[in-house]
Write a structure and sequence with these properties.
The complex is a heterodimer of chains A (265) and B (283). Chain A has 265 residues and is an alpha/beta fold. Chain A is built from 11 helices and 10 strands. Classes of the chains: A alpha/beta (265), B mainly alpha (283).
Chain lengths: 265, 283
């Protein structure tokens, strides 16, 4: 079972790269947070980024939808190609980039609005849907995060009254309404208990069918369980990147080995 | 030693309690006196008729209307200006020398004595811009006076909207202005409203700024346009208390009561809105 899949993966390697960075450097003022990061992320796979706090994995994630633009004094050099398009280009349309590359945050952060209003937030802003299609969008998005059966009769419930896990699912549903290709997940389970975490991971497996997922996680077991590829970052460098199975069983770099065996971090 | 600490605590408690009571007592006393002496004067005629016989009889209708006009006029100028500049200061401006100077200026504006605003209004609006003593000049003067209140409360309301709302909105592809429009302002609205109502009660109650810019000693009719003078409750109260002899105590306190009720009910609405907002707020 495993062999054909890995062959298939190898075949896709070049053709299906959706995110590629070349010599990506990022500075917060004088502090260099990313150092020559070269990475190639495959379409419709789950890529995990692991590493100790402050190693730059969240920073890397936030360069992919240019959320670092919000921070003053950030300087970036190098290339970031998404679908072959250099997103560092000044000409790039931030709106379409962020619709294409969506983000799920560390803490579930639904708006204090109803479940339905949360999901319709983006379609309303972008005016991508007619009013009569709104119920359909809500249903579709809730179904894809497996919340529909729970909430089909309670769509007007305030999202803040949901459990944290449901809130995080809702945040994913809200994101799916803009029809992204890539989902960036910044430690999406860190506020959740183990059972909720497991269910979110199952959801990620389902979402992988249609989306490319890049997840930053503190939790090595999570990376091992959920991802296809894993990158280990340390002090802004991408130390090692490869198939998750290989990284966790046969790391090439001593530092990776030390980290995954729990010698630091 | 332990006994001592206990006794010290008791003394401190009693002192604190007395201080609090001393603060509350005058308020209760003021309200009590005004209600007691004034409520006999409150009749339908008092509220709806124009003053008669050198303001010794009749009603205070023109003063009530004038105060309402002035409050509305003040808000027309102060609300958009204050809210927009607060949005700029919170959401757009970078933290540099200029911004800090602007913020300092706003704080200082709040500390300027109201009679100085009156003089300023006289110089700028009444004389230089030739609006004359008018509702327009008075509203503009009051608007400048309440601007710091509106800016400060709006800024606080905007600051209290969690940063994550902005991040999510931007990450969903909304522009900065859409983010402010749809995921910041709606959640800051109750806080902004509180500021508005505080501004209303300030504008309704001040005498000095309207003294030189709009207030009429006596008008037998209602103002016809924004370039007319108007009577206003605080100034009317001053006039019948000090400038006109032999006005009955009842009428004076009745006028004070009407002003007090108008201002207090505005404040009450502010408190209700704020407490609702606090209950709603769960983030």
């Amino acid at each position: 079972m495993l062999v054909p899949m890995s062959i298939q993966n190898n075949e896709r390697k070049q053709a299906d790269v959706i995110v590629q960075t070349r010599e990506l450097n990022l500075f917060y003022g004088d502090f260099q947070a990313l150092k020559d990061v070269d990475i190639a992320i495959r379409e419709k796979s789950i890529t995990a980024l692991i590493g100790p706090s402050g190693c730059g994995k969240s920073t890397f994630l936030r360069t992919l939808n240019r959320m670092n633009d919000l921070i003053e004094g950030v300087k970036i050099t190098g290339e970031i190609l998404i679908d072959g398009m250099n997103i560092r280009d000044e000409q790039i349309d931030l709106v379409s980039l962020r619709k294409k590359v969506g983000m799920v945050f560390q803490r579930p952060n639904p708006f204090p609005l109803s479940v339905a209003e949360n999901i319709l937030f983006a379609p309303k802003i972008h005016k991508t849907a007619q009013r009569k299609n709104h119920p359909m969008i809500v249903e579709e998005c809730l179904k894809s995060v497996l919340l529909w059966d729970d909430f089909k009769d309670r769509l007007d419930m305030n999202a803040l009254n949901l459990s944290l896990e449901q809130q995080q699912r809702l945040c994913m549903a809200r994101l799916l309404s803009v029809k992204p290709d890539i989902l960036l997940m910044d430690e999406p389970c860190s506020a959740l208990d183990p059972i909720a975490t497991e269910r979110i991971e199952e959801l990620m497996w389902i979402l992988k069918e249609n989306y490319t997922i890049i997840i930053v996680t503190h939790n090595m077991q999570q990376a091992a369980r959920v991802s296809d590829d894993t990158g280990f970052m340390l002090l802004g460098e991408l130390i090692e990147f490869g198939k998750t199975k290989r990284i966790f069983t046969n790391p090439q770099d001593q530092r990776t080995n030390d980290y995954i065996t729990g010698r630091f971090g | 030693m332990r006994h001592n600490a206990y006794q010290t605590q008791k003394i401190a408690f009693v002192l604190l309690f007395i201080a609090t009571v001393l603060v509350v007592l005058p308020v209760i006393f003021i309200v009590f006196i005004i209600v007691q002496k004034g409520w006999h004067a409150i009749t339908w005629e008092f509220l709806t008729a124009i003053p008669k016989n050198g303001m010794r009889e009749g009603g205070i209708f023109p003063a009530i209307v004038g105060t309402v006009y002035l409050v509305v006029g003040t808000l027309i100028f102060a609300l958009p200006l204050g809210v927009l500049s607060a949005i700029y200061l919170t959401e757009y401006s970078k933290d540099n020398l200029l911004t800090r100077l602007i913020k300092l200026a706003i704080i200082n504006l709040a500390g300027v004595p109201s009679v100085v605003y009156g003089l300023f209004g006289l110089g700028i609006f009444v004389i230089f811009l030739k609006f004359g003593s008018s509702i327009l000049a008075g509203s503009l003067t009051l608007a400048i006076m309440v601007l710091p209140i509106i800016i400060t409360t709006t800024k606080e309301a905007l600051d209290s909207v969690p940063q994550s709302f902005r991040e999510v909105s931007l990450s969903l592809g909304a522009s900065k202005w859409q983010t402010i429009q749809y995921s910041v302002l709606p959640h800051a609205l109750p806080g902004i409203l509180t500021g508005v109502i505080l501004a209303i009660s300030r504008a309704a109650g001040e005498t000095a700024p309207i003294l030189f810019t709009v207030a009429a000693f006596y008008l037998p009719h209602l103002p016809q346009s924004i370039f007319d003078q108007a009577m206003a409750l605080p100034y009317h109260l001053y006039v019948i208390s000090t400038q006109v002899p032999n006005v009955s105590v009842e009428i004076r306190y009745g006028t004070a009561l009407v002003l007090l009720v108008m201002v207090l009910s505005a404040n009450f609405v502010a408190i209700v809105i704020r407490s609702k907002f606090r209950k709603m707020k769960k983030w």
